[in-house]
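Structure tokens
________________
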Amino acid sequence: MDLALLVYVISVIANIKVPLIVGTILFGILFVIASIVKMIHLVPSDYDRKYNMESFQEVKAAIEPWWKKLGILFVVISIFNIITPAEKTMYVMVGAYAAQKVAENEKVVVLSSKVLKIIESKLDGYIDEAEQEVKKKLEATEKKAVDTATKVAK
């Protein structure tokens, strides 16, 4: 059940990843625009100094909280986007987790050691058979060589 839940969470996070990237770009653009507007209104113009200083202060007061909120939101979404792994990486992590759980199971360890012994004995048998065949072929080749040498010598 744990693995099924992990696979589900991975699919949900993979579906959220694209809107997060779009949101990061969108909030980044909005933050840049708000920063430009803030810089423009940071220094009052000559007209504002003479006639409309209160209006300048109102605009500055209205921009300031939005600029901070956009900046914080942009940073938080960017960090979340950075620390969220790719879908393939998440599946590899789940596979590694499953392999670790299987490897920790005592029954699997005992069974795998038995299977390993069977495989080793079969491989040893195949190696012995191959060595015997090579010896037979070598003896046959030596016999042919001796027979050929004997015929040539006569």
About this structure: Helices lie at 2-40, 46-50, 53-83, 87-104, 106-153. Residues 106-154 form one domain. The first helix runs from residue 2 to 40. Residues 33 and 67 are 9 Å apart (CA to CA).
